[in-house]
Amino acid sequence: MRILAAMSGGVDSAVAAARAVEAGHDVVGVHLALSRAGGTLRTGSRGCCTIEDALDARRAADLLGIPFYVWDFSERFRDDVIDDFVAEYRAGRTPNPCMRCNEKIKFAALLERAVELGFDAVCTGHYALLVDAPTGRELHRASDAAKDQSYVLGVLTAEQLAHTYFPLGDTPSKAVVRAEAEARGLSVAQKPDSHDICFIPDGDTRGWLAEKVGTATGDVVDRTGAVVGSHEGAHAFTVGQRRGLQLGVPAADGKPRFVLEVRPVSNTVVVGPKEALATAEISGERHSWAGAAPQTDAFACEVQIRAHADPVRARATVEAGRVTVVPDAPFDGVAPGQTAVLYLGTRVLGQFTIDRTLSAVPVGA
């Protein structure tokens, strides 16, 4: 196969490209330039798309003896990931930029260009398994549960899965990948993993959003609507947050309060007891299936609402374009804007963006 290897500059994508070469594929490496900030370096940074990363990717490609290119996707990344991130926070939702990047950049813009250029598949260093079944290609959890990235890949469609290649999916651990990189002479063998949001390299999401969205004083209220404090911008709060609430009125029971809801139109933050974070139902209209769609409109599954959350047994229904999930045991602290990924065993069925939640604890309870 002709393989386009997306090389981030990290150890995972370098080893994935090496395995593709070793398997006899015709491999070309490409690094995605997602920012035009010319002086960006990893020093003090916690991102994954810096100039240093591009140089690391080039060195790995040179060692593997494959052609290497840098493609400028900065405008598409700004429009589809960064602007979306800001818009979601403005709307009082909690977005996952890694999901949007996989959906809009790595497996949409990049894959589209790859197919146009005659490549059969895009290769990445994600930890997930692809299984060719009678009904088509399926996406499954990786062999190493600790590194499994099937959650953030839940946005992939059947067409995208057909042109995807994950050489690391059955690797038993990250330690094995690092040891292999060392044995191959790859300079990134011990390079630290990237984390946090790549376009906020210092990790200060609250400060970054304040610059983009601005600040505006608003009320913090309890579930009855009584004002218990104030804030400088609702965008700075997420459901489940406990710290930094600056409440002037203590709870009657003396227990800590948590953010239960963010209302951007009125610039209001709603707080309440931890018990009120229990969520009895979630739903959303923006959804997709990772391969063949379920054969029925109601089915049992497991649902994961965060990248590293434990899956929860649930019942899902699809009606009038909306997916609704009722868990066997309530979810804890679900925020609109989060992604719910549906599983059947190890297989990813699909995903939806949560836009409605129903608390398991009614007001006054």
From TrEMBL:
One of its GO terms (cellular component) is cytoplasm. The keyword Ubl conjugation does not apply. Keywords: ATP-binding, Cytoplasm, Disulfide bond, Methyltransferase, Nucleotide-binding, RNA-binding, Transferase, tRNA processing, tRNA-binding. The record marks 126, 338 as: Interaction with tRNA. Belongs to the MnmA/TRMU family. The gene is mnmA. It is found in: Cytoplasm. Residues 147-149 are annotated as: Interaction with tRNA. GO terms for biological process: methylation; tRNA wobble position uridine thiolation. GO terms for molecular function: ATP binding; methyltransferase activity; tRNA binding; tRNA-uridine 2-sulfurtransferase activity. InterPro entries: MnmA-like (IPR004506), MnmA-like_C (IPR046885), MnmA-like_central (IPR046884), MnmA-like_central_sf (IPR023382), Rossmann-like_a/b/a_fold (IPR014729). The active site is at 101 (nucleophile), 198 (cysteine persulfide intermediate). Disulfide bonds join 101-198. Catalyzes the 2-thiolation of uridine at the wobble position (U34) of tRNA, leading to the formation of s(2)U34. Residues 281-350 form the tRNA-specific 2-thiouridylase MnmA-like C-terminal domain. It holds the Pfam family tRNA_Me_trans. It catalyses: S-sulfanyl-L-cysteinyl-[protein] + uridine(34) in tRNA + AH2 + ATP = 2-thiouridine(34) in tRNA + L-cysteinyl-[protein] + A + AMP + diphosphate + H(+). Its EC number is 2.8.1.13. Residues 208-272 form the tRNA-specific 2-thiouridylase MnmA-like central domain. The keyword DNA repair does not apply. It comes from the Bacteria. This is tRNA-specific 2-thiouridylase MnmA. ATP binds at residues 6-13, 32, 125.
